[in-house]
């Protein structure tokens, strides 16, 4: 862990203004720690105040709904760290879901579903490559491009499956998708998701490519001057985002045993909220996978506790929105707070020898 | 604030603190889950007449028709002293219904009554709820048969056709020409009602002097229905009456009649919403029309829930249960309870209904 952070920010440091290293390190550290503290605090509060929250069932119900968000949050974190965004993730997932439904239906419900998975993942990669091409090669702003593809991919999903719903997927697969590891309640699929999380953590924090992403987020010009292939990096990030989103879509289909044109609709906001809440700066250049995982869990825990408490959907939307605003506002407020405290501390130190 | 001050001391103590806090939180959670587990085990059980908890999951919240249904359920639960609650999504999506079903499962709600947005997507969640001891009832919109014990449905299609024919017949002394103004040419509901009307006209001697001259379609569009009604009266000068088995059609036709010279001379009947039809009943344009009362669905659901939990019925065909003001209801084919017959609205009772 300590290695992770040191390297991450060592990579970032050269690209920034020459702030003292220690301060930067402290800042990062306290930010990550704060998010984990917040998660623990929220879980404890929920366990105390929300009836039935403290049980194994919570673990399974809470985590199974976190899976698609957690998956999509991984490439999203990397993309936001480079200073870009991908709002088309949920639509890409929806398109894969619709495609899987149609392929399965056309095969007469007994085709080779593994092959269909691969086809869907390839289509997901193509969606990502399309985004990546427009953003990295043509040089268009990612916000505009992915708002466009958000509508485009959802529209394609409608073309593919129309107003039908395909539901007769193999029971063994749908049961597997909703199953939990006995005793601890963690969904079985979570094991695979953790592998994905680990891969992204290694890429971001332990490889030159990952270090380059932080540099990119600070300054594209500086990054290209030190030899980072800016466009290539961005392109592959979007391809990764397409593939992972597509996988999330396939999971969604099996989890609900139903493929429709509106599957996974609207989830992109939860993903972005979780990533920002997890300490990734919307301006790029900073963030960590640990923080993002904690961010996803915070959003899910808050939502699930409110649902368990019987609050309507309206309240959930307001809370998610509020958390999103908070996650953007909090870093700048806490940065100012820390800066002020450091100034005071330095002043005290300076005073000390004199007295 | 305190937490971040601790982290500021340096890397090692910070991490230790996180670990300690996490460990403490886990310990607290484990203790709590132990407690709550024991508590719920002690709380369940009880006599045949115990108060039960019923949770309604409508297709979406804040829908006028649904609100009337739920109102019926609330009233019935207040009368029987059972715990009534409503949870559900803001938009009619199956995946958000699943989250709510999960929380209800965890709360050990005795009965979950759901109007499904997708017959299959909610199934695995409902089966989990069933495994947890909950009884499942669908109302209004059914799921796959295997996922619920009972389906509470509005009315029998034949009853709808017959009541409309009877209302018209009574007012035109069972003789003369009449027309049908329907929704669209391929509307399943309307077509089955019209078919029963035609069968009855052909087979029942009471209607031998009544002649159906034409069936026209207003496409469930207010303006089209209005124009089609106007056209009908011009092309069939001897028309005695119009049956409009759609709420849009009857309201548009009533609006045309109320300002024309045909007001009070041409009889209009069919299916309408009391709130839309009130003014035409009061000004004498319309004497009678029909619709099922959505509130009865909620009421029937509550009594069916009680009977299921008490074990007096299992939901198999032929089971009967007492449903308060609705009298005794019987479970028919496909484990379906029909609440009907349709309610007939006249100047005398229309003010008692608000939907």
Automatic annotation (TrEMBL), chain A:
Ranges of compositional bias, category Low complexity: 9-21
Chief place of localization: membrane
Source organism, top-level taxon: Bacteria
Recorded topology in the membrane: Multi-pass membrane protein
Subcellular location: Cell membrane
Annotated region (Disordered), positions in chain: 1-23
InterPro entries according to UniProt: ABC_transp_permease
Keywords: Cell inner membrane, Cell membrane, Membrane, Transmembrane, Transmembrane helix, Transport
Pfam name, any one: BPD_transp_2
Transmembrane segments: 35-54, 60-80, 87-107, 113-136, 143-161, 181-204, 211-229, 235-254, 266-299, 319-339
Protein name: Autoinducer 2 import system permease protein LsrD
Protein's organism: Frondihabitans peucedani
TrEMBL record, chain B:
Organism encoding this protein: Frondihabitans peucedani
The name this protein goes by in its record: Rhamnose ABC transporter substrate-binding protein
Gene3D superfamilies documented for this protein: 3.40.50.2300
InterPro entries: Bact_Solute-Bind_Prot2, Peripla_BP_I, RhaS, SBP_2_dom
Compartments where located: Cell envelope
Keyword Signal: yes
Keywords linked to the UniProt accession: Signal
Pfam families xref list: Peripla_BP_4
CDD domains reported in the protein's UniProt record: PBP1_ABC_rhamnose
UniProt key word Signal: yes
Periplasmic binding protein domain ranges (all copies): 54-311
Signal peptide range in chain numbering: 1-38
Transmembrane parts of this sequence: none
């Amino acid at each position: 862990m300590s290695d992770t952070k040191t390297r991450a920010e060592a990579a970032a440091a050269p690209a920034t203004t020459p702030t003292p290293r220690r301060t930067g390190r402290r800042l990062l550290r306290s930010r990550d720690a704060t998010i984990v503290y917040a998660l623990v605090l929220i879980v404890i509060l929920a366990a105390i105040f929300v009836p039935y929250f403290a049980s194994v069932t919570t673990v399974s119900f809470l985590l199974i709904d976190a899976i698609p968000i957690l998956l999509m949050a991984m490439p999203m974190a990397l993309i936001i760290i480079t200073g870009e965004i991908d709002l088309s993730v949920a639509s890409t997932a929806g398109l894969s879901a619709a495609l899987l439904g149609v392929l399965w239906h056309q095969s007469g419900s007994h085709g080779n579903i593994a092959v269909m998975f691969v086809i869907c993942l390839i289509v997901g990669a193509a969606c990502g490559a399309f985004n990546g091409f427009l953003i990295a090669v043509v040089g268009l702003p990612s916000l505009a491009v992915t708002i466009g593809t958000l509508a485009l991919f959802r529209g394609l999903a409608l073309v593919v499956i129309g107003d039908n719903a395909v539901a007769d997927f193999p029971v063994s697969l749908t049961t597997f998708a909703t199953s939990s590891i006995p005793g601890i309640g963690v969904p079985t699929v979570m094991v695979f998701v953790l592998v994905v999380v680990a891969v992204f953590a290694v890429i971001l924090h332990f490889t030159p490519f990952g270090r380059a992403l932080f540099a990119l987020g600070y300054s594209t010009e500086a990054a290209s001057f030190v030899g980072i292939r800016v466009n290539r990096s961005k392109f592959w990030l979007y391809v990764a985002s397409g593939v992972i989103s597509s996988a999330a879509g396939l999971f969604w289909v099996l989890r609900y045993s139903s493929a429709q044109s509106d599957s996974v609709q609207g989830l992109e906001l939860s993903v972005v909220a979780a990533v920002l809440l997890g300490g990734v700066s919307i301006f790029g250049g900073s963030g960590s996978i640990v923080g993002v995982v904690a961010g996803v869990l915070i959003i899910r825990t808050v939502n699930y506790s409110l649902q368990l408490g019987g609050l309507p959907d309206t309240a959930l939307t307001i809370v998610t929105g509020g958390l999103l605003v908070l996650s953007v506002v909090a870093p700048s407020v806490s940065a100012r707070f820390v800066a002020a405290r450091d100034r005071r501390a330095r002043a005290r130190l300076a005073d000390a020898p004199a007295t | 604030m305190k937490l971040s001050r601790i982290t500021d001391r340096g890397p090692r103590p910070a991490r230790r603190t996180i670990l300690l806090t996490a460990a403490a939180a886990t310990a607290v959670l484990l203790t709590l889950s132990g407690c709550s587990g024991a508590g719920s085990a002690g709380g369940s059980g009880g006599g045949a007449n115990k108060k039960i908890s019923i949770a309604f999951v409508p297709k979406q919240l804040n829908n006028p028709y649904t609100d009337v249904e739920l109102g019926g359920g609330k009233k019935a639960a207040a009368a029987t002293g059972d715990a009534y609650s409503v949870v559900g999504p803001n938009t009619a999506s199956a995946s958000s219904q699943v989250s709510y079903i999960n929380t209800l499962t965890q709360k050990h709600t005795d009965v979950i009554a759901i109007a499904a947005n997708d017959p299959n997507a909610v199934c695995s969640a409902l089966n989990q709820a069933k495994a947890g001891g909950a009884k499942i009832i669908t109302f209004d919109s059914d799921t796959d048969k295997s996922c619920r014990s009972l389906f509470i449905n509005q009315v029998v299609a034949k009853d709808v056709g017959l009541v409309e024919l009877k209302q018209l017949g009574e007012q035109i002394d069972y003789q003369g020409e009449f027309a049908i103004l329907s929704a669209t040419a391929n509307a399943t509901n309307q077509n089955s009602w019209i078919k029963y009307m035609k069968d009855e006209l052909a087979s029942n001697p009471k209607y031998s002097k009544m002649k159906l001259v034409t069936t026209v379609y207003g496409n469930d569009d207010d303006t089209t229905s209005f124009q089609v009604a106007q056209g009908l009266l011009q092309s069939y000068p001897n028309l005695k009456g119009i049956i409009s088995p759609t709420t849009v059609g009857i309201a548009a036709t009533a609006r045309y009649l109320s300002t024309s010279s045909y007001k009070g001379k041409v009889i209009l009947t069919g299916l309408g919403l009391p709130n839309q039809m009130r003014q035409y009943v009061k000004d004498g344009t319309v004497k009678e029309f029909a619709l099922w009362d959505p509130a009865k669905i909620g009421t029937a659901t509550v009594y069916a829930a009680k009977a299921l939990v008490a074990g007096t019925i299992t939901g198999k065909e032929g089971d009967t249960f007492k449903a308060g003001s609705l009298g005794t209801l019987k479970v028919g084919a496909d484990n379906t309870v029909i609440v009907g017959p349709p309610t007939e609205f006249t100047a005398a009772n229309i003010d008692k209904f608000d939907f």
